[in-house]
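User: Hey, my collaborator sent me this sequence without any context and asked if I could get a structure. I don't really work with proteins. Can you help?
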Amino acid sequence: MAKVIEGLFYAESHEYVRVEGEYGYIGITDYAQSQLGNVVYVDMPEVDDEVTAGEEFGAVESVKAASDLFSPVSGTVVEINEALEEQPELINADAFENWIIKVKLSDPSELDNLLDAKAYEAICE
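Assistant: No problem. I've predicted the 3D structure and written it out in structure-token form, which is a compact way to encode the shape of the chain:
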């Protein structure tokens, strides 16, 4: 069974957001990385780009497939995880530790539309 962490918010499209104050760290879940296999490339937006809840913000490519990334929340990108440019396989090592983008949340109430750990686990079964 893939790892699911309590206290995060999950999208049905297998992205998570970890909220710290007014910021959200967005990445793909352990389940998503296990389905993809070895990640070889992460396509990320630029700092200052806007992301919109439910809309595409990048892609993850593995040896098996490419998968679009959908933002669980809306906001402005304040940081990208530059380590993933050189070592995209970090996502396979620990998907929850190796977030993809950090955004300043523009509408924290959007978090109410996301799943908690228990609801997300049910989707993955």
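In plain terms: The first strand starts at residue 9 and ends at 10. You can pass these tokens on to your collaborator as they are.
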